[in-house]
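Input chain follows. Return structure tokens only.
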Amino acid sequence: MSSDRAMIEVRNLTVDYIGENSVARAVNGIDFDIREGEAFGLAGESGCGKSTVAFALARLTRLPGLVSGGQVRLNGEDVLNFDKARLKAYRWNEVSFVFQSAMNALNPVIPVSEQIMDVIQTHKPELGQQGARERAVELFELVGIPPRRLDDFPHQFSGGMRQRICIAIALALNPKLIIMDEPTTALDVVVQRDIIEQIVELKSRLGFSVLFITHDLGLMIEFCDRIGVMYSGELVEVAPAESILTNPQHPYTRALGNSFPPLTGPRVRLEGIAGTPPDLRALPQGCRFAPRCPHAMDQCRVQPPELRYYPQHRSEAACHLLN
């Protein structure tokens, strides 16, 4: 169960990608919170800024990317101002990462045991070799892999088991937040289900929060407590998962929902979203979704909407149609 207390507070987060002759604003001043024990999802099309936000929260942004503004507050401290020593303590101890491709995240020429123990010994050298090994055994048992496989190499595991190993590494130091960037990509639906059920069970048992990023809106609605929908570097709606499913407020959120086939009931014609996302180097003047929105008004094309809370819908949305 999640609480109402914010663990991570993101305020006016802005991330740019610097080119030779241009600047592309990939994240444009977004605000959101992740509460204690909560699974918070970020949804949207490719290139909308989801992974850029995740990397900024973990302080993993690299050039040409640049976090050019805002705050990421953890218990009153601004993560963006951490020095090298504080940043080392922050990563893995307080925030850890499950990357999109497990096979690329694991070193193919090093046994899995060494990769898990390296994280443990780097941050808790007092445990020693034996203590780190015992913790690695605990982690394998925690994610449902026989400890006798600990000294195997990554290629000896299936895709689902490699993803479980990445989750085990992320859990090694009992972090408060785990960022999961497309954790079930390239896995078949049965294995996806197993991975998600495992994450739900571990979250319930250990009490950590999750930032969950995926293209699969149906999977996100089932797993997450709240969902933020991003479009072209901005949050256009933040609402409880149930509201995103049954009562979406923003036209883009509705269009995303209509792009997925229902699992039950009669077959219906799927509706794609016409057009393409805007070029981040040449953004429209008003609402960024206006060129693709079937409900766009003159106001939408000249005035950017603000993200506002609508208590009757229990959601935040940025759309002139709601005013």
